[in-house]
Queue: 2 jobs
Job 1
Amino acid sequence: MPNVENVVRVSKPYKLASREFHPEDTVVEVPSACVAGGVVHIGGPEVVMMAGPCTVETEKQLMTTAAAVRKEGAVILRGGAFKPSTSPYGFRGLGEEGLKLLAKARDEFGMAIITEVMTPTDVAMVCEYADILQVGTRNMQNYMLLDEVGRTRKPVVLKRGMSATFEEWLLAAEYILSQGNRNVILCERGIRTFEKTTRNTMDISAIPLIKRLSHLPIISDPSQGTGRRDIVGPMSLASVAAGTDALLIEVHPNPDEALKDGAQSVTIDQFRELMPQVHAVAAAIGRALVTK
Amino acid sequence: MPNVENVVRVSKPYKLASREFHPEDTVVEVPSACVAGGVVHIGGPEVVMMAGPCTVETEKQLMTTAAAVRKEGAVILRGGAFKPSTSPYGFRGLGEEGLKLLAKARDEFGMAIITEVMTPTDVAMVCEYADILQVGTRNMQNYMLLDEVGRTRKPVVLKRGMSATFEEWLLAAEYILSQGNRNVILCERGIRTFEKTTRNTMDISAIPLIKRLSHLPIISDPSQGTGRRDIVGPMSLASVAAGTDALLIEVHPNPDEALKDGAQSVTIDQFRELMPQVHAVAAAIGRALVTK
Amino acid sequence: MPNVENVVRVSKPYKLASREFHPEDTVVEVPSACVAGGVVHIGGPEVVMMAGPCTVETEKQLMTTAAAVRKEGAVILRGGAFKPSTSPYGFRGLGEEGLKLLAKARDEFGMAIITEVMTPTDVAMVCEYADILQVGTRNMQNYMLLDEVGRTRKPVVLKRGMSATFEEWLLAAEYILSQGNRNVILCERGIRTFEKTTRNTMDISAIPLIKRLSHLPIISDPSQGTGRRDIVGPMSLASVAAGTDALLIEVHPNPDEALKDGAQSVTIDQFRELMPQVHAVAAAIGRALVTK
Amino acid sequence: MPNVENVVRVSKPYKLASREFHPEDTVVEVPSACVAGGVVHIGGPEVVMMAGPCTVETEKQLMTTAAAVRKEGAVILRGGAFKPSTSPYGFRGLGEEGLKLLAKARDEFGMAIITEVMTPTDVAMVCEYADILQVGTRNMQNYMLLDEVGRTRKPVVLKRGMSATFEEWLLAAEYILSQGNRNVILCERGIRTFEKTTRNTMDISAIPLIKRLSHLPIISDPSQGTGRRDIVGPMSLASVAAGTDALLIEVHPNPDEALKDGAQSVTIDQFRELMPQVHAVAAAIGRALVTK
């Protein structure tokens, strides 16, 4: 019997990632004790809120943030244990100690955990603690890392390279998919442009365009995508209006004292104000926000 | 008595355009017979729909489009009579004949007219027909044109240069303002990036950021901003969610036969479907769409 | 008899500018009393040095600079009388007074004059004083200006738009050529990139590539192209090694007191040291530098 | 006694890489049997030619190319055994088999070997065969790879990331340096721009600027830097004129049949014609090309 993957012809250099090959939306399931049924669906009719600190700093910082974002309706907790740093002298994260704190937060609040993995030899360890692996923008074309996360069956959030075209991004997804892992979620996190008042320029058009080119879920990171706390709110609403499947937002109890990327983290108060607005815009386009 | 303009200190190289100098939102008034009171306000609490063909081609094309967009709630009619063309062999517009057709559409449908002016010596003539002057992306730094539209008192839509930073854009606005014309409206129309599946990458973050940097109204052109009819809808909704003061949308009765930029013009049917969605997202963030 | 321009088929959207249409190099003749024969050829076997201040400030500044650069072998004098300024509050040049000073320098030193024209209505006046018209980077797509300089027969240096592709640049040249003016010279002056330590990134590859795509002369402006005096030297040599037909260099007797762009102007001493190096690299690739 | 590294203050975020910290040029020594003294110096007064195929395909292809480029004066042989491929379905290199062929070529022709390493766990193996490790553009911010090559003492060629600023590039070098490996060589290989007729835009200004910012050697890859065989020649000469310490050129006996990147590989004949031109331009700026 012919293998269907070899039968469907596609017009793009990527295949498994293409909408032509796989016309139906892919919905990625993430185990999450805090929701009814114990599973969050990413890429389905509902919008998902992922929130938490950029970087895990201390148990108190993480638990305070997790409690606050869970209370407002976030169902997935973000937090970096392995952090890329442009300078070798910057903070590079708590490592496995940070992963353990994330696991503890999951036990306490029932939220699924998303965290970054930076190198192939760490994949097995990070898989022990995380529910979703994140591949960062600088690693979008780290092919051996893509191969390795492709050999797991964990959901993978693949961030867009900071100067990547959609085709390059979908070819990076193809690396993971072609290793057998079909749980790939794409994340728009801003591209580099000439603008100096923002850290990145968030490309909202990625949301409807990836939906046309691919069946994979597409989510938005307005924190990295802008680098500015004061516009995370409007860019979150714009993402939802454009059809994002989830938001990934950096929240910090005291952003100005954050060890990393404080300028782009919203406060807990700002997050609390944002949630009803997200609900309202989602409702306006006929979607709901899953919160329990 | 000291001139207040010389007293307020600003931290940016632009001054009259800055929020520091002028903390209250500027609301630009445009005479428009089709709305109650006869004036449309751009930059106030309501969102405004501007729509029409990219280029005025024939009386029939213009009138058909104007009738259709007015029926759905557009209150300002767009249409190009002088068109920039990358090639000297491309269509450069009908010139004054096109302006006359626009004036005729205004008489018939009561919509205000927005149209482009490309060179200083045309400003007086275009002012005779237009309610809003448009300065295009290629002319954002055509300083003598900026000076000349600055010497009129007509509302001016100043499109962002295709690789301009916010600072350069606001300095271009400063040219107009410093000549005495305070009726400046900024328009995000996409920037050049490495992406090849779109004509431009629409920078939705310009909307909330310009609101912070400046008191001037900011509007969105998702047609030029994307170059793709199939995502004009989601990008319109994203613009509204992010706080745009108006949408400027290209509509054509038969886009595939358009003389110019058909790929980015929506059909009348698509426009009809879009309007209630725009209403819903505007309502979700507490704004209304002015339609009569 | 068929018009040859309508007979030759070209594969590019530009035609008169293309090497396919016109296989032989175009050599533009500029009257210059200081050289043997009274004419400088741009685009021929010899390399040409154009130098002078960014902006004409005073008679003394201009004459001092002209005397110095002529002494070292420059045969064309640059100097701006109409200057584009990003801010309306910046120095915009001396206008016609500056043109008169340039003409005076021509009378005294026998150098041809190149100076910028910014708007169609100034073309006739600038033609009275200048030997070469310059269209600046911000005006590369100011189509009415291109049309107007195309209606003269003066040599025109067309600077590359700061984010323009080669195709867009050659289409801009096509505007001038199609009006009948075949004396078009292209000038690489740097493109905008993400780099922050330079004002622009000079695209040296434009030199050999334009030579392949077009028959028009191509020259280099390493002052604007870098924005940094300390690398004008190596970038001049790189331009010559890559095949540039001329260099256009900003020289100022006291750059740190320049009214405009002092950071990118070399001193007279630096210019004096550079000239023999330019000679040597030109000789290494089999070309000479015309100096008398 | 204070550690000098902690005493010198630098004004940049990178330190060990900065010219302020280390004012003298770093000269990296590479063992190479084909030259007098058995050592090639990169970063000293002489210019070095590195050449060879993009990718090792077969023994015959490699040996033919190596023989030819050695005969013309290349002293270092390039060739990829581990190749990054944008698509998972592209050719990814021969792996260790390719390394063995490179070692065989070294034995036969006495040239030092430069080859890419893509992931930390391969570093030890690649070190067994290579004289210079290459970190590719996509891995410029693969921090764990940088750490690992930093723990060796092999010379490392660090290619510029395709959208990296000089500061980011020097911070990546700082990762390697701060692990104790001071044998870092920077390589300009083109940046991404809007231009479509080239694969990358080679930033020649990187050569003089890196020389000012850093003491590390800087070399040029005009093959990757342009993606076009027809301009590799002029861009090589431009690099030398601007001060490059070495050229890294792709040569293939039959480029149109290359498994990878044939469009940017020059033929053996083209390479033969180029060498005397490189000699001449180097001589014009007072440098020699080391060939034996």
Job 2
Amino acid sequence: MQADNASTTLPSTPHSATLLIHCQDRQGLVSRITDFIARNNGNIIYLDQHVDAQKQVFFMRVEWELESFAIPAADIADQFRQELAEPLAMHWQLHFSDETPRMAVFVSKLPHCLFDILARCQSGEWNIDVPLIVSNHPDLKPIADRFGIDYYVLPITPNNKQEQEAEQRALLARYNIDFVVLARYMQILSPEFIDHYPERIINIHHSFLPAFPGAKPYHSAYARGVKIIGATSHYVTSELDAGPIIAQDVVHVSHRDSVEDLVRKGRDLEKLVLARAIWNHTQRKILSYDNRTVIFD
Amino acid sequence: MQADNASTTLPSTPHSATLLIHCQDRQGLVSRITDFIARNNGNIIYLDQHVDAQKQVFFMRVEWELESFAIPAADIADQFRQELAEPLAMHWQLHFSDETPRMAVFVSKLPHCLFDILARCQSGEWNIDVPLIVSNHPDLKPIADRFGIDYYVLPITPNNKQEQEAEQRALLARYNIDFVVLARYMQILSPEFIDHYPERIINIHHSFLPAFPGAKPYHSAYARGVKIIGATSHYVTSELDAGPIIAQDVVHVSHRDSVEDLVRKGRDLEKLVLARAIWNHTQRKILSYDNRTVIFD
Amino acid sequence: MQADNASTTLPSTPHSATLLIHCQDRQGLVSRITDFIARNNGNIIYLDQHVDAQKQVFFMRVEWELESFAIPAADIADQFRQELAEPLAMHWQLHFSDETPRMAVFVSKLPHCLFDILARCQSGEWNIDVPLIVSNHPDLKPIADRFGIDYYVLPITPNNKQEQEAEQRALLARYNIDFVVLARYMQILSPEFIDHYPERIINIHHSFLPAFPGAKPYHSAYARGVKIIGATSHYVTSELDAGPIIAQDVVHVSHRDSVEDLVRKGRDLEKLVLARAIWNHTQRKILSYDNRTVIFD
Amino acid sequence: MQADNASTTLPSTPHSATLLIHCQDRQGLVSRITDFIARNNGNIIYLDQHVDAQKQVFFMRVEWELESFAIPAADIADQFRQELAEPLAMHWQLHFSDETPRMAVFVSKLPHCLFDILARCQSGEWNIDVPLIVSNHPDLKPIADRFGIDYYVLPITPNNKQEQEAEQRALLARYNIDFVVLARYMQILSPEFIDHYPERIINIHHSFLPAFPGAKPYHSAYARGVKIIGATSHYVTSELDAGPIIAQDVVHVSHRDSVEDLVRKGRDLEKLVLARAIWNHTQRKILSYDNRTVIFD
């Protein structure tokens, strides 16, 4: 029915196309979708599906080679909509392998996640453009300069939040940004801001959610005496630290670890977990439904 | 073409059927298989497929409900063979959800894996029958007695191996055993024995294979000063500790750990890893190809 | 100053003695304690110390061989008290290596932790006596019978809790129990009960605390869409699921896992984490302070 | 007896001193060493010891505050040598907390470990100077330039190895380098080179050693069908990939992972494991003995 965020720029000769679909479960869905591809001479190189048996929802990710595909890339969306998506009331996205997503990074003062992201992009590990960094502090500008990326300082106070967020949104539009990563950005975005980018804002929270939401989770973890700490990456929703979880990981700690040790060990976790979330997002491996994620691997 | 080990006892009203398939990859396989099920009114509750792009091999596991399926359970194998398996030269297995696999356990003197297996079966965690335990030592007979399971002592010497293995095979036949688990059985089975049970003998090796194959891996791990030890469960082939790996896991160790500590920590790993392998095997989640396994999860 | 729970039964020829000490930090503590042992010809085989720099508390575990120790085992406690513990206002415990702790297990209907505990004791992996199992249900009596252990059914209702707990405490006294393990015991003990066994009741909670305390944590974890589930073993205090944490571990899960899968995967975690806590407790490796634990390893 | 690599530049007012000691085990060692510190008014802030019971070797790390220590920093080494090290035939190192180690990084073409190291140094996470990068390829010079670090290209051929290593050693001397990190440096150093820097060259190997030593471990891991891959950091000795292991970690993989996926997942492991090794080395937490390491934590 609705193409949630189908790509609008069409590739000349993309290598492959990926469909992400969810809809009410019914018999024959896989058969009809794979038949659509096979009939048009597409060679499936990835297929995974999942059924939420409790809620009777069907999820699918299918990727196929376009080389000898009978439908031109520019027409696939239309034809899929008519033949399958509308008749079967599907939510769907269509992506092409040669798209390069454009990511903005929001930071405050901590550099580790930003450094890790930029190193991955710059070394070619990720095929992602990062044209824009936004911060409420000037501290990390030297890093942006080092990588040649525009850096805007927009300090947030209780009084100027609305205007600054308007400015942020203008920047996101001007730089043609596809999605935003909060790389230890220490400000809470307003619901209005968040509503404009559904499932397009990824946060890293430095705890094993739902344990220790909010501020100073390492201090809380220390005080509680946990033997494991974690990090959680999730899509941002208007409820703080409560959006759909994309990735989590943990590391063992002991009584020898001070709060500073937890912060140090946690940094590595944060980098890793955020990187996995960004990878899965840009590889079109995530479907979000009912505040949970399906991560196709 | 060939039903590797299709079940011969047919259920009256099984809940679901599972097909495990592998064959040369070609366009339209998923479409044709799912169409076979959908056309006959089967509701797919699990589908996963994998393509080994390098070797051009297609793997699939599909499970569907039989309640309103148009083909009687007893006829599914024949019809699938004629319509799809033979024309497409598939290797395939068909299983029904109400089968209870019959497992024999081979042990020597160490009780931890045996205890764990029997506890899982006896508490109903697993739907597996264990009618037979075979050992080269009498030590664990009290445990078998405690659980009311027949226990045979067949000591192996360099001279009697052939006869004792003949006796073991006679027992496996008499007890109608589907597969064998070597739960820290300290004897090497002959190639003849192994050939009779392809992908039906599961071993637990107490190292992170291919590191430390053969005898005394914990001593070797200690001597090498590794910081992590592991356990590996695999199908037994005629090459020692070199069969297709089903499951592996590890635990961190330190300089404080003596060989005895490694043995102690390793015991828990061995239990867990062997249990995962048995679970996956009896849930029909494993396809083995070219000495590697596909584990559908 | 106070010997928290120094052993009263004195061994004839124990192999080693262990001191667990905590007190206000000050210069020279390690030197004075190790000098006490060295001067009396004791050979230290384990020494670890920890200083909580924030709270200025000193923790130490030291174990030494008694073979040629100048002070008879029966007099060590007195002499240590006079020379060091009283002058330095220490909290301390003295243990001997030949003590066999006596453990009671409380269960409800789930067998996996009980089976695991009994298998470890029966196979000689642990040197622990389990003379007593208490339950609010008769379901697991067959397991107790199988292992030849007395099993008492004391059903708890809102009206009879006080009497039943009195009966439980009478049993613990009669069986000369050192510590209690709640192996998925589904009742909340009263503060009066708990106060009688400080740091002597070990619980296993089936979540990664402080996430998901209380009832049905696997259901909550599923609803929240976490990518990792955990288990936590802790000393029981009067605040529910909030006592000092002894051990935690986790396992990765995915959208494919139903609540039933979480329960299944969690069972293995619960067994492992509870077993580690019991091991550390009986090896005298735990010091608890300010609702946190120091685990000497 | 011998101060293996006691620091020669003496600090004016270092915060703390650290002794790393190993020697034959005997009674009273801890007592004598801690008495030396306590008697001179030093406040111990870290003490850990370990005895290799099998080989009768004693290991210790002790750190104490120098603020009111009776012996001037410049005289501690002499006095410790006379009072304890010589009489007790100790191997020992003395370090001061205000030393900043100087590290050279050797690379080939892969940037991920180099980027990670430089980000940690530049952001102040590590207190390490990196004045020198050496490579057999020019590829990573732009990264060195970006961080303002001297980068030397010394291509290695079968014929020029001896001269190039002479040049490398001249550079290490000229830049006053304390230790070398091989951050995916694809050349094998000669025994002569290695002998000059005992326990001062740290390598990252992209497998779980001793599995898959040598070239192309990810390809070997894929071919063997392992379910877990690893990375290993170790001190370099003249035997390839066989030196004392400092740190290891692993990540789960599946049949879905191609060799390229293993390479991708392995990169994150390599970064983490190498970073942990560097951290432990520069925090003076490692003692190496008999091709094993003691890592004080």
